[in-house]
Design brief:
Elements (H helix, E strand, L loop, with lengths): L7 E6 L6 E6 L3 H6 L2 E8 L9 E4 L8 E12 L3 E7 L2 H14 L5
Antiparallel strand pairs: 1-2, 1-6, 2-3, 3-5, 4-5
Length: about 110
């Protein structure tokens, strides 16, 4: 499998729902390269504008819309991920980082 990179969005089988959903890779690239697994955040189409740990997914050419649920972290083995659909912009990843700091009470 090609490198799995932070910020890429993949389809993967949701472990609880037994159906494919979109996930964004949140773990850092050094970890992603060294291990067989990655940490991902679930995407949802449910309106989460009122939730500070959710980040709006900006318009994109793939037609994905919704929110990144930063307090819903999943571990996937790389072979469980389909082909990447798209990747988040640096700006959106910075918003994800800010939300993750809230999730884990990191004060930097």
């Amino acid at each position: 499998m090609p490198d799995v990179l932070r910020g890429q969005i993949y389809l993967a089988l949701h472990p609880d729902l037994n159906e494919k959903k979109y996930f964004v890779v949140a773990s850092n690239n050094k970890r992603n390269k060294a291990l067989d697994s990655v940490l991902c955040l679930r995407l949802t189409t449910t309106d989460k504008t009122h939730v500070p740990t959710c980040v709006a997914l900006p318009a994109n050419k793939e037609g994905l819309a919704g929110f990144i649920v930063c307090d819903d972290v999943y571990l996937f083995y790389k072979e469980e991920l389909d082909t990447p659909v798209t990747a988040l912009t640096d700006s959106t990843m910075r918003d994800v980082e800010t939300a993750l700091k809230l999730v884990f009470s990191i004060r930097h």
